Amino acid sequence: MEWLNTGHPDKHFWEDFGTGLASLHAHSNELFGAAGDQYIGTLPQSNAQATTWHHFYRDQRIMPLLRDALNQGLCTREDVTCGERLCNHLAELLPVEPAALLHGDLWSGNFLIKSDGHPALIDPAVYYGHREMDIAMTALFGGFDPVFYQAYNAAYPLQPGWQQRLAVSQLYRLLVHLLLFGSSYYGRVKTILQEYGN
């Protein structure tokens, strides 16, 4: 792999980062998913392709992890039922958009500041999905600088209400954390399931 020397952000770092992510998301595909599977952390991540986001998100992301969590005693059968109800409403909860090329695991630990002061993305879990997945991940553990979101929206505006929908897209990553790191993530998972699955 290419070695990247790190440095300090230049004055346009967050603006360039937001614009750059918007440019990445502008790459589209007819299908959601990818030609091959991969891992998210140490968990297998299926990318079996689908024609709609709500089917892909249900069948390749939310329900498999909920079933795994149930089998490992990390959630209840009621939680799985709430998840099924949430998934039945995904087409109404999330706006229809073309499949976007995603980083797939975009949190603060997965970008670098290069020696020239510009951003670089690392450690991706790439697939074509709903672009709010990447945005939701940036906001999961504190969020990025507000300039990042302003620049992103100036380049490729998110559909109205995106801030209120973040939890729906964060559910997948919280389930990943529940399976990898245990019950400390259960409360956040259950809150989202109850809010959207009742």
Quick synopsis:
The chain is mainly alpha-helical and 198 residues long. 49% of the residues lie in helices and 11% in strands.
Mean residue pLDDT: 96
Helix content: 40-55%
Name the poorly predicted regions: none
* Strand composition percent: 5-15%
Gyration radius (Cα, Å) is 17 Å
Secondary structure: number of strands: 7
The helix tally amounts to: 8
Topology order in helix (H) and strand (E) letters: HEEEHHHEEEEHHHH
How does this structure look, described?
- The strands form three sheets. The chain has a three-stranded antiparallel beta sheet with strand order 1-4-7. Strands 2-3 form a two-stranded antiparallel sheet.
- The radius of gyration is 17 Å and the shape is globular.
- Helix 2 runs antiparallel to helix 3 and helix 5 crosses helix 7.
- The mean pLDDT is 96.
- The protein has helices at residues 13-25, 53-71, 77-88, 90-93, 132-140, 146-155, 162-181, 186-196, and strands at 28-29, 38-40, 43-45, 99-102, 111-113, 119-121, 127-129.
- The chain contains eight helices and seven strands; from the N terminus they run H-E-E-E-H-H-H-E-E-E-E-H-H-H-H.
